[in-house]
UniProtKB/TrEMBL annotation:
Pathway involvement of the protein, from the record: Bacterial outer membrane biogenesis; LPS lipid A biosynthesis
Organism of provenance: Kaistia soli DSM 19436
Protein name: UDP-3-O-acylglucosamine N-acyltransferase
GO biological process: lipid A biosynthetic process
Keyword Lipid metabolism included in the entry's annotation: yes
Pfam families on file: Hexapep (PF00132), LpxD (PF04613)
Amino acid sequence: MADPVFFVPASEPTLAEIAALTGARLAEGADGERRISGVAPLDLATQSDLTFIDSPRYLPLLAETRAAACFVGPKHVGAVPSGVVSLESPRPHDAYVAVLRLMFPEALRPQALFAPGISPGAHVHPDARLEADVTVEPGAVVGAGVEIGRGSVIGPGAVIGPGVRIGRDSHIGAGTTVIHALLGNRVILHPGVRIGQDGFGYLMSGKGHAKVPQIGRVVIQDDVEIGASTTIDRGANRDTIIGEGTKIDNQVQIGHNVQIGRHCVIVAQVGISGSATLGDFVVIGGQAGVNGHVVIGTGAQVAATASVKDDLAAGGRYGGAPARPIKEWYREELALRRLAQRAVAPSKDDEGREG
C-alpha cells in the first residue's frame, strides 16, 4: 500500500527568509541561502527539515537531531549540535508556527473535495442566492432563501436550512447541518457540526413534559472555527451568539440563549447550559461544565473538568467543583492529600501488633 503525503509544502524558504519572517537570529556564519523543504519534530527531522525546541526536557532529543535548522531559545543555543543551524528566538514555537503557516497554507482550513462550482449531485433551491465562486459539493442541500457569500464551500452531505445566511470565504464541513442561523465571513465548521436545532426546553409536570417553542437564532460572527460534532442550539426567545474569532473544539455542547464573547477558546467536551454568558477572551478547559444563567467575566480561565455553578470574576483563574480561585483549589487539594496520607500511614501501635 502506498504511503500518501497529504500536505506538500507550497514553498521552500531559505534560512535568511525564515529569519526575516520570524525575527530569529541566524547563527553566525550560517548559509542564509540554504533552503528548507520540510518540518519535523526533533527526533524525526532530516537534513532538509526545520525543527524547534521550547522545553529543557527535550534537550536529549536536541543533542541527537539531524535537522537542517532549529528554532531555539537563548538559554539553549549552546546545546544545538554541530551541523545544525540555530535560529535563536525568544519564542521558538511561535516562530516555528509562523513558518508552518507559510509553507502549508492549505492546512489552515479544510479543502474542497471536488472541483469548484455547483456539483450536479448537489440540490440547490432555485430561490437560494449564491455569489460567484461558491462551491456546493455532491449530496449537499441548500434550502429556499439561503444566501451564501463569495468563495464559501458547502461540503458533501451538508444541509443548509431555509433562510440561512453564510458570509464569504466560509467552509461548511461534510455532513454538517445549519438551520436558523446567520454565519459571518471566514467561518469554519468541521464535519458533523450541528447548528441551530431546538434548544432543550420543556415545562415539566407530573402529567408529562410540554415542549417550549424555541424561536431564536444562532449568530456566528466572523473568523469563528467550530470543531467536529459540536452542537449549538438556537435561542429560545433571544439569539445564541458566538463572538468574533472564538475557537471551539470538537464535541462541545452549547445550549440555547448562550452568549459567548470575542476570541474565546473552548476545549473538547465542554458543556455550556442555556443563557450562560462568557465575556471576551475566556478560556474553558476540556470537560468543564457551565451552569445556566451564570456569567464568566472577560479574560477568565477555567481549568479542565471544573464545574462552574456561580458567576466568575473577570481575569481570574478557576478550577475544581464547584469552581473557585485556582490557588484556593490547589490548597484544598493539597490539604486533602495530606489528610489521606495521614489516614493510611500505620501507627506505632499498629506496627507493634503486626510484628
